[in-house]
TrEMBL record:
This is Large ribosomal subunit protein uL29. One of its GO terms (molecular function) is structural constituent of ribosome. Belongs to the universal ribosomal protein uL29 family. Transmembrane segments: none annotated. The lineage of its organism: Bacteria, Bacillati, Actinomycetota, Actinomycetes, Streptosporangiales. Pfam families: Ribosomal_L29. The keyword ATP-binding does not apply. One of its GO terms (biological process) is translation. Keywords: Ribonucleoprotein, Ribosomal protein. CDD domains: Ribosomal_L29_HIP (cd00427). HAMAP family: Ribosomal_uL29.
């Protein structure tokens, strides 16, 4: 799982970055579905991973909207 994103990694990102990652993940999901429909898909597990990635991004965005989790910045060592 080289490209997988964890919720903790997503929580430290800005809203604009989350929106961009969501857009990229949705485009990848579209391409994977297209490959699946035409019989060219080699990695069926990637479909599931991308769907979960999209769900994680939506979850983090919703948490922020409800005020459940605030934006956490990485602590600086200086």
């Amino acid at each position: 799982m080289a490209k997988g994103l964890t919720a903790a990694e997503l929580r430290i990102e800005d809203q604009d970055v989350l929106v961009q990652k969501l857009k990229e993940a949705k485009e990848e999901l579209f391409n994977l579905r297209f490959q699946s429909a035409t019989g060219q898909l080699e990695s069926h597990g990637r479909l599931r991973a991308v769907r979960r990635e999209i769900a994680r991004i939506y979850t983090v965005m919703r948490e922020r909207e409800l005020g459940i989790v605030t934006v956490e910045k990485e602590p600086s060592d200086g």
